[in-house]
Design goal:
alpha+beta, Dna Ligase, domain 1, eight-stranded antiparallel beta sheet, 6 helices, 19 strands
Amino acid sequence: MNIKKLSFIFIFLLVLVALVLLIDQKKGKKTFRTDLFNADTAEITAIVIYPGADQSKPLTLLKNGKDWIVKEDEKAFSADPGMVKEMLRTLNDMKATRVAATEKARWKEFEVDDSTSTRILVKKGKKTVSALYLGKFSYQMPKNTNPYDYYNRQPEISTYVRVGDEKFVYVTKGFLTMVFNRSLNDFRNKVIIRSNSNDWNRLTFSYPADSSFIMLKDKGQWFVDGIVVDSAKAAEYLSSVAWVSNDDFVDDQKPVSNKYDLSLKIEGDNMVSPIVLTAYAADTTHGYLLHSSENQGVYFSGKKSGLTDRIFVGKTELLSAGE
């Protein structure tokens, strides 16, 4: 053979090897599914969570119009919209990075079997569109060739997941049990006040005897009884109550009457309606039962987290020194 023929054969074989490698690579990419959740999150109407610790007490999140409610046994409460949004985002972003096991015999090892996993049923109406089994998580520090950059490295957390009736155990990024495996109170709506204090122009504090007062804003300055409020104290108070959430729910007590002891009415521009907070006398554990128009039908402990002292301040706390 001359050199020309040998060169032709060499090039032919080189191209053939390249094609074989390319085909094998494409096949390798398709050996397992990457999307672990394929439903449209906008069409989801219910999420049922069977906690790994006690699957006999499932939590159910139900869509009610634009809002969500959370149920456990016979108890039902308004759900935290932020928590629901986080769950839907987590479901939508759930991707498999690799396969950890392909046999049912290894389910228990990764805690994705029926008894140890956190089971998630996602529904559209009466139809279950996805069933997920969340297992244990793994924690790994990423490889870094720079020995001086150890403290800047972020840990990589992954969760083992099984989908429906499949035998495969997948690995996906994130600590999924932290998102789904929570208590009833974690899923409840905790909002007391959620508003922009820059829009406020009138705060009416109604207290016993003659201690009531009104805090008014005029041309960017706050006044109480015609006296200028110290700007630093006003800003400190307004920022402390503009965004208030709490999980010290009181479900075993109700106000003995409709007459409240303390109230705060917040009015302002760009507000659909005023925010009204009321406090009702309670036992020594709670001091007062606090209620907000932002979270109807729910009462919070006024004493446990200091909510009463934080919200219902006296006018002497707001006025400038020496006034």
